[in-house]
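2024-03-11 09:14:02 DEBUG pipeline.ingest accepted 1 chain
2024-03-11 09:14:02 DEBUG pipeline.ingest length=108
2024-03-11 09:14:03 DEBUG pipeline.predict start
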Amino acid sequence: MEVADQPDVVVTVTDDDPSAPVIALAGELDLSSVESTRAGIEPLLANRPSHVTIDLEKLTFMDSSGIALLVQISNDTGHVTLTNVAPIVHRVLEATGLLEHFGLVAGS
């Protein structure tokens, strides 16, 4: 189910289990797209799931506003696992010291 489609980012729910949704992000998550991305994700977090998985395979760029969104999701839900983390995004998370903050699926 596609939730938000903006010029810079696409939010897709690949598993809509309300207690543990899987959300795929594609495109560029930056200052120009973070609010529309947040708007697409917030309804999925309304039930305060205990775990959220975010698939970042098709995310091609992420700036500090994207990092802030991931941290906010983690703070709101308690646990976030990142999967299929693209190398460019992995480097950003590593440089900020946030790799340890998120659960990473092996091979990510």
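2024-03-11 09:14:41 DEBUG pipeline.report The chain has a mean pLDDT of 85.
2024-03-11 09:14:41 DEBUG pipeline.predict end
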